[in-house]
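Entry 14. Structure prediction run on the chain below.
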Amino acid sequence: MIRPLKLITIVLLAAVNLSAPAKPVPDLKFTDLTGHPQKLSSLRGSITVVSFWATWCAPCLEELPRLARLNQQYSSKSVHFVLISADEPKDRPKIEPFLQHHDITLEVWLGASLDTLDRLNLDNALPATLILDPTGEVISRIEGEARDEDLTTALNWLLNNRTGPAPAPLTKRY
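Output returned:
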């Protein structure tokens, strides 16, 4: 049997935890293709899909056209898509020709690494995707190649004011 004082303490601690604001994603720094600095905090204010990828990653090649198509589908709904490359600095000259060859016109940042994935609580495998709400809170993590339903479920849930079942906080697709 739980004593009344202990029960009150448990209830108060639970209430404090429920009312605590969600913690936004760490404010990591990258650069865009023109060399300008970019930070994850700059994505706040809109729902954002952040995909970590590399030119050498075969599943990324399958995923990138899907992200481009979904970007078009959700562009009028203020959903932002950003690709962050994990290519090594020596391979960065390959990125723009790769994107042009595959007709990918999404915003691209540079400078991700396995350490970046660790800091974002993602597995050390590409592709990896985060879906962020407008405050920068991670709503869903997708490790491996994201499927349409992995993305659309979370995006539609956010666009519909979080009504219905919440998306899975972590999906593994490998």
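The chain has one domain: 24-173.
Filed with the rest of this week's runs.
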